[in-house]
Q: What sequence folds into this?
């Protein structure tokens, strides 16, 4: 049961244009969402996050949008740069049932390629 | 602060052998989580340790085990290796262990032949 889905394995955009990466989730208990970026041979790097009480969070060129009713979030990168080329993972956090801590669930990732 | 470190970075083992991977979290972080990354499968959660106790466990067979020491360093062990265990194993640490931002190490690339 894949609770966090990134349906696009890859995305290619031109430098300077907008990159939009999408993520869908099924668990309504998720209350915190994160995006990570991963370069080859490196561990994922935290990029941006959003709480379920918000619908938008912006950090420089990166903006994350959350649509709770649709159980959908997206990451917008504007303008896209060649250095943004990486695998982007969407992750969601929920309180462990019967527990007092949280667990991150990751999507399978989207490979973004920004062409000069 | 120094980041999360993992040793070794690369490892080649034979089927049936066992392997131990090590992770040193960011200083002050008490939560350490382990993930397995394989092509097309994203990051699959193995387990999480907090203050030397395993708090969460993913859906992996009992051949996968771990532990955490009093200094928060963690080890992961895989016994009776199978070809399908070939993957990148990532360790992540967190200060609060509450599912918020986790900081990842570079990973250990395990190849089973």
A:
């Amino acid at each position: 049961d894949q609770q966090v889905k990134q349906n696009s394995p890859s995305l290619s955009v031109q430098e300077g244009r907008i990159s939009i990466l999408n993520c869908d989730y099924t668990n309504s208990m998720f209350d915190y969402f994160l995006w990570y970026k991963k370069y080859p041979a490196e561990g994922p790097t935290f990029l941006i996050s959003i709480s379920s009480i918000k619908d938008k969070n912006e950090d420089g060129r990166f903006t994350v949008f959350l649509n709770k009713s649709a159980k959908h979030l997206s990451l917008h990168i504007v303008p896209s740069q060649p250095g943004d080329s990486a695998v982007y993972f969407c992750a969601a956090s929920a309180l462990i049932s019967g527990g007092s801590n949280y667990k991150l669930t990751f999507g399978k990732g989207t490979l973004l390629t920004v062409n000069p | 602060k120094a980041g999360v470190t993992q040793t070794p970075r690369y490892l080649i083992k034979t089927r049936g052998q066992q392997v131990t991977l090590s992770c040193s979290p960011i200083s002050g972080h008490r939560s350490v989580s382990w993930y397995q990354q394989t092509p097309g499968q994203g990051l699959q959660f193995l387990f999480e340790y907090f203050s030397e106790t395993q708090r969460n466990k993913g859906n992996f067979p009992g051949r996968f085990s771990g532990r955490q020491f009093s200094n928060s360093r963690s080890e992961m062990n895989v016994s009776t290796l199978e070809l399908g265990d070939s993957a990148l194993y990532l360790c992540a640490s967190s200060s609060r262990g509450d599912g918020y931002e986790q900081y990842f190490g570079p990973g250990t690339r395990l190849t089973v032949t």
